[in-house]
Amino acid sequence: MYTLLWLQGLTCNGNTQSLLNAENPSFYTLFDKINLLYHPSISYDVDLFEIINQIKNDKLPLTFLVVEGSITSDKRFFSIGDYSIAQIIDALKEKADYIIAVGNCACFGNIPANFDKNSDVKGLQFRFKEKKGFLPSNFKSKKGYPVINISGCPIHPQWFVSTILNLLYKKPVYLDGFNRPKELYMYLTHDGCTRNEYFEWKVELEEFGHKEGCLFYNQGCRGPLTHSPCNKVLWNNTSSKTRAGMPCIGCTEFDFPLRENFFETKKNMGIPEEVPIGVSKRVYITITGVAKTLKNERVNKRLEETE
Amino acid sequence: MPEITKTVLNRVEGEITLKLIWENDVIKDAFIIAPNFRGFEFILEGKPPLDALVITPRICGICGHAHLMASTFALEQIYKSAGYKLEISEKARLIRNITLACEIIQNHIRWFYIFVYPDFLSLENKVSLKDFEPIKGKKWRKAVDFSSKIVKIISIFGGQWPHTSYSLPGGVMCEPTNMEIVSAVGIVDEVLRYFEEDIIGMNIEDYLQITSLREFINKSSGDLATFIKLSKKFHLHKTGRAYNRFISVADFDTLFCSGITSRKKRLFDIKKVKEVDTYSYLLKDKSFSFDKKKYSWSKAVRYEGLPYETGPLARQINSENQLFLNLNKKLRDSYLVRIWARVDEIGKLLVFVKNCLKKINIKEPSYIKPVKDIKELEGEGYGLVEAARGSLIHRVSVKEGKIKDYNIITPSVWNLGPRCRKYLSPAEKAIIGQKSELTAHMILRSFDVCSVCTTH
After folding, report:
1. Which of B52, B139, B261, B430 qualifies as a FRET site for A164, CA 20 to 30 Å off?
2. Smallest Cβ distance to B158: which of A16, A244, A260?
3. Inter-chain CB proximity A154 and B61 less than 8 Å
4. Residues ≥6 apart with Cβ < 8 Å to B280
5. pLDDT-derived band of residue B10, with 50, 70 and 90 as boundaries?
6. Is residue B71 a contact partner of residue B383, using CB atoms and an 8 Å limit?
7. What sign has the CA pseudo-torsion B274, B278, B282, B286?
8. Which ipTM did the prediction report?
9. Using the beta-carbon criterion (under 8 Å), do B155 and A10 form an inter-chain contact?
10. What is the crossing angle of helices B138-150 and B90-110, to 10°?
11. Contact A15 B61 (CB under 8 A)
């Protein structure tokens, strides 16, 4: 029997809400194969502490321990009954085959870790960039994985569903440097964006509210700097922020809440301070110059007016 | 000797602890404890003003879009109070209304099936309600599917749901095509058909003519009618009453009116809203106190010193809807009436969204750049929004290009905040007198508890 226990720390519940949107397959069809032991938004006739006790006493196996939200051991700021979320995870960490952090709060601490009146807010295994999360940096769950981080604020539901299915079907899950499933986070948000043609030819969006133009140069878009398949696995199976016209804010990365001015591109003498992953500033300047010199007529027109 | 029980309540947004004081098997007092705190108002201090558009939606995963709108409006008001003209196209205004309404529709469908209905599985025999069982039940699954379908419209305009920040002072960031707009109309039609077939069990035009409980029950066999019959069976049509005083802080286009209704309806005045920190760990001056009598991270909020209920029922009463005026006259602000008002809104909002979609003129601009960068302005602005759970108030002050202070009063603070010296919160009051813990939980859920918003 496969089982899944869902716990929440300091969270907005957004990953749960996002997960309910899953299609192909739906979130709930996962539970044809897995016994959902407890989820705070879903369960109706089970007692969380009874379940925790049964797992602790080896009366219930725990395949997946899923955590949404940041961790704090300060009970003044977060408690479930008489316990802190840190105490509960501590009691279960040796029992789970896999521990999965869903969302940037559980992965890196995220926005709640920016609250300076509670300095004890962390992700499960990371605090922002550093491996100084709640669990030790060398921690591995029973099946030999560190905490598997599914980052994003919120996560795309398919990322979670695919990761769970991959583990269920006993396929290896390769992880990147932040312990995120490589097959999901090897893409950049930029990949598949409908504005890519404008990026290639360096046709910048001057102001918000247009289908045409790239958001990288003026609007602070992090698409070429952010690891996520947001434009490959579309949101709500429909669109993505950059497709709609909103810049990527880099919410799958550890530094998301540490950055400021989300809708501006930091520039120095007209050159973005950060250039796309994989190229040097020199290369970026050269390719920009070339693209601007060799004008592409199509990308300088309104889409409706193109041939 | 009074007995004390303390339960962690699930099937709410986030988690709430309910402490009950019993005497002779009757609840004598109830304390709604919101034990978790993330410090959003602290985190926002010193940030560039527009970053609020990214940060505040993350207060809540289910009504984050309402926070986005409140931040947008609050920042826009800074322009106006500084004497600058800020133009918003009709197109941008319609699109904002559409996406906000879709989030509310999503919330109400999920809440009714995922949070409310399962309580009846514990009261009624499970066989007759097996379709409502979490995860497995056909109707539970359908509710998840259709609530996920309606937010596709937010994705069309804003790129994703939850947590887009596509609205900003001056308009919206998207430029939809007519093809995208009509596909949104198609989505509304599908969800509307589901609402008619499954939830109200009749067509929407007939439903909107209904003015009494009996008339509805006689004509409908949908899930709402089943819910009403179950509520009556367990006496929940006459229980769970709070103060019968209602607040709505903003008009929802022409659909719902703002107002204050106790005996008579009056106009809402923001100056009469006051926060009270007597029983809150968080004090008004942003310091903390863990004094023994304190029990929640939420402050209380009062209007002219009195507690008011906010939410869909308040909107219906303040908009003088005939059905709800009649229900309220007969049953007051009971469990049944409160929940029916939420479910009722799904239909009205769907019709509203469809009308707004048809009115969009794609030739208008989506965004009209404000004449000045907001960092060059100083001042204070309010953002008033009717969110899924009711009245949401953001107040932002900007100085020297940064957020100087940000204060948020969520709908759940109105309904579920702690007591003040004189009065219990509406939800605390509604629970008193109950004889079972389960019905106490059900009444609390009828307010659509969002603990993540309550404390933020």
Report:
1. B139
2. A244
3. yes
4. B294, B296, B297, B298, B299, B300, B417, B418
5. confident
6. yes
7. positive
8. 0.97
9. no
10. 170
11. yes
Q: Which two tokens stand for residue A260?
A: 């400021």
- Nearest CA to B156 among B294, B363, B362? B362
Q: What is the mean pLDDT of residues B47-55?
A: 98
Of B64, B140, B290, the CB nearest to A12: B64
**Encoded tokens for B146:** 């259709």
Find which of B71, B96, B155 to mutate to test the A interface (most A CBs within 10 Å of its CB): B155
Phi, psi of B360 (to 5 degrees): -65, 130
Domain spans of chain B?
Answer: 3-455
Question: Could you tell me the two tokens for B382?
Answer: 């309010």
Dist CA B48 CA B28 (whole Å): 48
CA–CA dist A128, B266 (Å, integer): 50
Domains in chain A, start-ordered, CATH in brackets? 2-185 (3.40.50.700), 187-307 (4.10.480.10)
- Whole-angstrom distance, CA of residue A230 vs CA of residue A159: 10
Question: Confidence class of residue B1 from pLDDT cuts 50, 70 and 90?
Answer: low
Q: Is the pLDDT of residue A226 over 70?
A: yes
Check: CB of residue A97 under 8 Å from CB of residue A144: no
Give the tokens for residue A249: 């804010």
- What six digits make up the tokens of B368? 């009209």
CB A265 within 8 A of CB A272: yes
Could you give the angle at which helices B322-331 and B335-359 cross, rounded to 10 degrees?
A: 170
3-class SS string, chain B: CCEEEEEEEEEEEEEEEEEEEEECCEEEEEEEECCCCCCHHHHHCCCCHHHHHHHHHHHCCCCHHHHHHHHHHHHHHHHHHCCCCCCCCHHHHHHHHHHHHHHHHHHHHHHHHHHHCHHHHHHCCCCCCHHHCCCCCHHHHHHHHHHHHHCHHHHHHHCCCCCCCCEECCEECCCCCHHHHHHHHHHHHHHHHHHHHHHHCCCHHHHCCCCCHHHHHHHCCCHHHHHHHHHHHCCCCCCCCCCCCEEECCCECCCECCEEECCCEECCCHHHEEEECCCECECCCCCECCCCCCCECCCEEEECCECCEECHHHHHHHCCCHHHHHHHHHHCCCHHHHHHHHHHHHHHHHHHHHHHHHHCCCCCCCECCCCCCHHHCCEEEEEEEEECCEEEEEEEEEECCEEEEEEEECHHHHHHCCCCCCCCCHHHHHHCCCCCHHHHHHHHHHCCCEHHHHHC
Task: State residue B13's pLDDT score.
Answer: 79
What's the CATH architecture for B3-455?
Orthogonal Bundle (1.10)
CB pair distance less than 8 Å for B13 and A246: no
Segment 59-118 of chain A within 8 Å of chain B by CB: 76-81, 111-112, 114-118
| Nearest C-alpha in A relative to B38 | A112
Q: Provide the b/e sequence for B19-57 (b: ≥16 CB within 10 Å).
A: ebebeeeebebbbbbbbbbbbbbbbbeebbbbbbbbbbb
d(CA B159, CA A211): 12
Bridge pairing between strands B171-172 and B167-168: antiparallel
Q: Are B331 and B450 in contact (CB under 8 A)?
A: no
The tens digit of pLDDT for each residue in B233-284 reads 999 999 999 999 999 999 999 999 999 999 899 999 999 999 999 999 999 9
With tokens 């369960």, the residue in question is A43
d(CA A158, CA A164): 10
Helix (H, G, I), strand (E, B) or coil at A167: helix
Average pLDDT, chain B: 96
**In sequence order, which residues have a C-beta less than 8 Å from that of residue B117 and are 6 or more positions away?**
B129, B132, B139, B140, B223, B227
Alpha helices for A5-47 (secondary structure H): 14-20
Whether the upstream peptide bond of residue A154 has omega within 30° of 0, thus cis, is yes
